[in-house]
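To whoever is covering the structure queue this week,

Two jobs came back overnight. Logging them here so there's a record in the thread.

Job A:
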Amino acid sequence: MTLIFDLQVIDRLFAKFAPADFTTLDRFEEILKQYWGYNIFRSIQRDIIESVYNGNDTLALMPTGGGKSITFQVPALALEGTCLVITPLIALMKDQVENLKKRDIRAVAVHSGLTRHEVDVALDNCAYGDVKFLYLSPERTTTELFRERLRKIKVSMVAVDESHCISQWGYDFRPSYLRIAELREIISEPVPFLALTATATPEVVEDIQQKLKFRNGKVFSMSFARENLVYLVRNVEDKPKHLLKITHGIPGSGIVYVRSRSKTREIAQMLQKEGISADFYHAGLTMEVRNAKQNDWQVGKTRVIVATNAFGMGIDKPDVRFVVHVDLPDSPEAYFQEAGRAGRDQKLAYAVLLFNNADSLKIEQRVESNFPPIEEIKRTYQALGSYLNVAIGAGKGETYDFNLMDFCSAYKLSSVRAYSSLKILEREGYLELTDELDNPSRIMFLAGKQDLYKFQVAHAELDGFIKAILRNFTGVFSQYVRIDEVYLARLAGITVDKVIENLKTLGRYKIISYIPKKRTPLLVLVEERLDDKNLRIEPSSYRLLRSRFEDRVKAMLSYANNQSKCRSQMLSEYFGQKDSYRCGKCDVCTSRNELDMSKYEFDMILDGLKRRLQAGPCSEEELIDAIKRNPDRVARVIKYLMDTGKIFHNEKGMLAWHHRKEGGFEVEE
């Protein structure tokens, strides 16, 4: 018998029955190598990429430094169309767009700091150009302008960053996230949604999938344990003195987190006086200054950066050897994210929390200042309407420059309580408040090339200036391009004032659109201004937000006060990792190690003691007799458990087991 092979048929059969990832894996690795220079994916990155590429809605839990952006950027480059990336972090959004452009990948961002014309141009380029990534804030997804244009954009996938913001169980709930799922009805074809977050408790994981209306949902999670990161809590009265001890004792680069801008400068100066190369960083500095400070720290010119929580987003410094928190963070989520910036190179690093009894009082006061009474919130809202000069029923969708300190000064308000009131109004969906934005100057040519030529002939005095722009800035006819007036002055051989005058002249003639640089926070009225009767802040919603904030504060206090459970294990279990284990390196574990016995022996004695005491209180002698092991070693474990509050004497003088759950952490072992 003669067998005749049809190669086309064989190819079709092979394609049908071969694993779906046979060719795409090579493509994914090609993209990774071409654009990022890496040869292999890290941890669960490839699993997430395959899941999304195969059309599955996917939730990825990846702690800080896990490489989240790769998980949507790689599949988006392998797919046709534009990837929507929804993120509330405007600074990070702008940073990622610039990084993609440096890799010759077309990306644009739409956020509150742009004019309507800039938004128009950006969305047109997505609909009719070859833009691969459209970054936008969640609030922008609800506008009619965006939703109408979205129907014309071929969307490849939707990446939802900071997806914990969709859950009222989460630590940073934003109501605008609740409407993201509506995009499924507008996008012309079904596309996969990828939800990304660094921190999420089990309740939040369920909530994210439900609120985003997951279909064929997959969940991938990296371990929350960081084997190279040593968690330490130091209960000290003199925090600056102990901080000096840490910086002298641990070589290498570090971050020191504090809660106030003034304290960043004070502590940086204190370190400098002790011969340590240090600098300070906070959101009140100009973008140029912040960039310079961050760059000096990243290249090693500055060893220690003292900062508020404004520092850290988007940084990629793998060799941070320590992160110290001088003040107690508001939640384990925030602490885990900030502490996790240490040791991304997988080498030994330290996360140190400095704590004392005064912190407990301060954090309780923080609860009160973060949740002013509802009537005070309403008064702040009405003062805001007057400050912005917005009439009742007007202002919907409008964007305003907003200076918090000027507003508080004008209406004699506490800046902390006013800011908290505005953030609650933001959670209720009435407004959107951004941090200070540094928007550089931008230009775009409005005149076509034929009309521009005629203008240059008619206005010879501007011909050389126009040519300088065209020679040095690309893409100016199709999109807004960032310019620097000082740089342009050097190119054209004129003064900066003359550059600005020329740009304004070209703007008046409609040759270009010129948007001068501006640095200010922005406030957007999501809804029209309401009177007191129609401004609704649901008491039940307010109480729920406050209660959950208090729960997270209690969890953070529990972490700081804990002396009996491994700190790495506490954090892992807080985020739902049930198979966590003792790290053996944190301050709790090392104090246990001083008992001079193996982990196995300690655990065996501990289990026996726990079983006996859970059956009922007894004397120390009875307890030692009940454990069939070396009495001296059993006595040492009993003393350790008494010192750490696990065992106590009841009112009858008997030893009893202390059952307790503190602030979301299971302390009992």
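Job B:
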Amino acid sequence: MAQTAKYDIIVIGGGHAGIEAALAPARMGCDVLLLTLSIDTIGQMSCNPSVGGLAKGHLVKEVDVLGGEIGILADKTAVQYRMLNRSKGPAVWSPRSQNDRARYKEVARKALENEHNIVIKQEEACEVLIQDGKAIGIRTKIGNEYRAQAIVLTTGTFLNGLMHIGLNNFPGGRLAEAQASHLSDSLKKLGINLGRLKTGTSPRIAKEGVNVANLRVQYGDERPMPFSFCTEYITQEQLPCYITHTNERTHEIIQKNLDRSPLYTGKIIGIGPRYCPSIETKVVRFSDRTSHIVFIEPEGIDAGEFYLNGLATSLPCDVQVDMLHSIEGLEEAEITRPGYAVEYDFVYPVQLGPHLETKVVRNLFCAGQINGTSGYEEAAAQGIMAGINAALKIRDEKPFTLKRYEAYIGVLIDDLITKNTVEPYRMFTSLAEHRLILRIDNVADRLMHYGVKYGLVDEDRGQKFANERREIDETIERLKATVVKPEIANPILREKEETEIPQERGGQSLFQILKRPNINYHDIARMNNLELPEYIGTRIEIEVKYEGYIKREEESIEKLKELERERIPENFDYENIRGLSNEAKSKLNEVRPVTLDQASRIQGISPSDILLLLLHIKKGG
């Protein structure tokens, strides 16, 4: 007899989105059922074993201060930390870690199993059950029915997943893992439009076949900065990565075998990620390049494999071997797991509202790669937002959204629901127009109060960072009020090749001295015997040096808020607005923007269209 059970929320999928989507509502007091195709692969790092990177590191830090798990998992399993973009401004500093793949999966599963409000079951979800336009449950492949007040789909690459290695293809969501073969049909019957995307991964190779003697070594930071505010120290062993390059011989092998590539023979129809292309695509697209960088990354402390970052491919296995053996250091490399491509179904995210609930079916949420994104970090960010909003929905409370000027998460979700995604979406700092405000050093100031509000962050932890904020503000005021004499400041200014303070001026405030480009917080501390933790000193230095820019950003944001206040009624009739083009009407009807601010970011909507909308809203529509 089929089993029936009731929960508050059902989460489908145990990847990086599913982990956050399950943990957040469970910690908010909801009973959560997590359905996964395999309990053993919860938290699997399908592609490279790393967390963070350019802009992605910002997402991890934001999820962490909201009370999420990905930063904690990264810190528990990291084997190397690097702060990227250190040579540039602090707005684009981005933390990245190399991680132990097996250990990450282990601690992710343990985090879910240790949460008493979560039940985990290994079953394939086949059908979303609907009543009166609302999602009310899930039917599984073995006939069980589970009822819930909200459902979150985090299916990753498994919806009708199709694997490609050379001209061979076979069903699967990951290598040696089955696809989800029925859920797509259920979503289509509900009126949800699906598209097709493609992603891929690199071969894994045995360690003993790699000769690193002549390769450039890439070490991590001497003083690693953790992702999570819960992590005080990094104690585990740090491992090096190695750098090699493809060459003309490599490219010749690839070019000669394009007729055996599923990408260039029409076997793959899904669109791949523009900013993380396969090596075949790089060789074809950048034919003038004679080499491409390849990072040889450890899979873990005790792992016997390396991951080849930058060498994603779906070429046949024999071509993969020839290609590797043409690369310095990999002449004797043995492939343990071949590279592959996977095609999968995704939901066009313009069908979602700002809370990641589908517009077609109430109480049905989507997060992660099902929304057309790529990356663990983008998935985790959507997962925590969908999980929080699912919990708020069943409590009949106001939904939670983040603005573009509040968080990279806000940029991510706004881009997804406003722009018509036709390729895997990847977060970059360049996509955030207010990135000077969205730094990693002020992430707790920006978002931790939300984590406290929803019960995901302990109040003591929230108070600790409120105290730090007060200490920073008080110290900045002290710097403004403290004037140092030339005889104290000038020796240090001379040492740092800065203009000395004339004796007749009598001195200069520490605040103004810190604004100088070659002066850092340690120099100011030497002038006045200030003693503060280094990370607080760094934050003070950033805020002082960029004070003028930050003020201009804040003024710009205040103007944006005026457009945000102009909300567009839910059933607003665009068809009767004279002067709007048919294209504008079509796009506005497709996206159904919530505010004029969101409408202004829809591709093809002009300033004159926004003015027309404003006039009609003011008239009462």
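Note for Job B: The CA atoms of residues 519 and 608 lie 47 Å apart.

Please reply-all if you pick these up so we don't duplicate work.
Q.
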